[in-house]
Structure formats: structure tokens, C-alpha cells
């Protein structure tokens, strides 16, 4: 349709990078693009920590589940929900509300998507790192994050050393609904998608496996999902009310 749509539809996560650094002007454009994202009520309730110290990168890679590309990528950015600035401007500000965490998380995701799209437009690639939330307290300590700031996820950026296959998404009819949510999930469409994903996983060029999307979902949602997260958020001043 146009180059922007083509770029978006060509997205794939990159987990292997060449040693080539990202140029300063490229990083400036990526960060400017991140800051250009929409901001709820113009709160601008986010910060980005650019991690450049090799030892710190290694620690974060470990905390994220031994994801080596956190240490190897040309750039690693940590996107945070941040109300520290707001408390500096207004010491009596009412913070700790659930809505404020939602704003920080949503706006942080918008910033990160802008950043990755900008990077991809330059021929760079990247992958988001939600694994930082495996050890939120350790990440908070490692990055010296004060109360009012919480690490949401990371973003590796660099020059791709791989071109992985694009992962098929759910059929649109299972995702986009008109006016009302359907009474039932279309089992026929879901079964067809499971077949598609099974073929994709078995036929891709690396990390082949025999699994369906439904099987993955049962495995992921059949266990606890970081049950320590509420306490970690509350220690940083979030989800108090």
C-alpha cells in the first residue's frame, strides 16, 4: 500500500546482531521518534534508560532469563513508567492510582513501538525484552530507579545478523469485532490457525518445534504469571489504590 505499511507488515523480532554500532544520528532519530508518541493528558509519564556499561548489560541479560542478545545488541533501552518528575513538580501530587500505571504502561509501549519502527526504517532490527520483569527488584536496584519509576520492558536494537520468517498472526475475524464482542470463539478458525502455527514452527529455519498456538496458550496460562509483581509495583509506588 505504501512504504510505512510495508515496513509495519514486514516486522519480525531480531535476536542476533552484527558487531556494527548504531550511528549517533540514528540513535538520536530513534529516541526523538519515541518521544514523539502520543501521551495521555500530556503527562509524559515515561523515561528511557540507555544501558551502555557492559557489566550492567550482562547483569540485565541474566535477570531477563539468560537472554544473551541483551548484552550483545548495539543498543539496549529500558522503558519505564515514571512519575518521579511529576512528584518533583508537584510534591503533593496524588499518585499510586491504578489508572496511572495503565497510562505509564500504555504510553511506554507507544514510545517503544515508535522507536522500533524508526529503527526498522533505517534497516536496523530489534526485539522487546519483557523478561526484565522476571526480577523487577533486581532491575530497579541495578538501574538505581527511585520510588515512582518502574521498569516495564527492554528493547534490543542493532544491525540484524538474521532474517527470521514472519510469524503468522491470528485470523482477523478472531481479533477484530464489529460493535459487539461475539458470544463464542470461532473454533473452526482457531483450529485452522493452530494448523498454520504447527506448520510454521516445524518448517522455520531455526528452533523448530511441534506445537500449536492453543498448546502454547494452555502452557503459558496454566501456571502462575509472576505472582511477585504486585508487591514489586507497590514498593515503587504503583497500584496503591
UniProtKB/TrEMBL annotation:
Gene name in the database record: nfsA
**EC number(s) for this protein?**
1.5.1.38
Q: Which GO terms describe its molecular function?
A: FMN reductase (NADPH) activity
Q: Which UniProt keywords apply?
A: Flavoprotein, FMN, NADP, Oxidoreductase
Q: Which Gene3D superfamilies match?
A: NADH Oxidase
Q: Cite the Pfam families for this sequence.
A: Nitroreductase
Q: Please identify the protein, giving its name as recorded.
A: Oxygen-insensitive NADPH nitroreductase
The family line of this record is: Belongs to the flavin oxidoreductase frp family.
InterPro entries for the chain: Flavin_OxRdtase_Frp, Nitroreductase, Nitroreductase-like
Per UniProt, residues of the Nitroreductase domain are: 8-159
Amino acid at each position: 500500500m505504501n512504504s510505512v505499511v510495508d515496513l509495519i507488515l514486514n516486522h519480525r523480532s531480531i535476536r542476533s546482531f552484527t558487531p556494527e554500532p548504531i550511528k549517533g544520528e540514528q540513535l538520536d532519530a530513534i529516541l526523538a521518534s519515541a518521544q514523539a508518541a502520543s501521551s495521555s493528558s500530556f503527562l509524559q509519564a515515561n523515561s528511557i534508560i540507555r544501558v551502555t556499561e557492559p557489566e550492567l548489560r550482562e547483569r540485565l541479560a541474566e535477570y531477563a532469563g539468560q537472554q544473551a542478545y541483551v548484552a550483545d545488541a548495539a543498543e539496549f533501552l529500558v522503558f519505564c513508567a515514571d512519575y518521579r518528575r511529576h512528584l518533583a513538580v508537584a510534591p503533593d501530587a496524588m499518585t499510586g492510582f491504578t489508572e496511572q500505571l495503565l497510562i505509564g504502561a500504555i504510553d511506554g509501549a507507544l514510545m517503544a513501538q515508535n522507536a522500533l519502527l524508526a529503527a526498522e526504517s533505517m534497516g536496523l532490527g530489534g526485539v522487546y525484552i519483557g523478561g526484565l520483569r522476571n526480577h523487577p527488584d533486581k532491575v530497579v536496584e541495578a538501574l538505581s530507579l527511585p520510588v515512582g519509576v518502574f521498569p516495564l520492558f527492554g528493547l534490543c536494537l542493532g544491525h540484524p545478523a538474521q532474517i527470521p520468517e514472519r510469524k503468522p498472526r491470528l485470523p482477523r475475524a478472531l481479533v477484530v469485532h464489529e460493535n459487539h464482542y461475539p458470544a463464542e470463539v470461532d473454533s473452526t478458525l482457531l483450529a485452522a490457525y493452530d494448523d498454520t502455527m504447527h506448520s510454521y514452527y516445524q518448517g522455520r529455519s531455526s528452533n523448530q518445534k511441534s506445537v500449536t498456538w492453543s498448546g502454547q496458550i494452555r502452557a503459558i496460562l496454566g501456571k502462575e504469571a509472576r505472582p511477585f509483581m504486585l508487591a514489586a509495583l507497590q514498593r515503587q509506588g504503583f497500584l496503591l489504590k
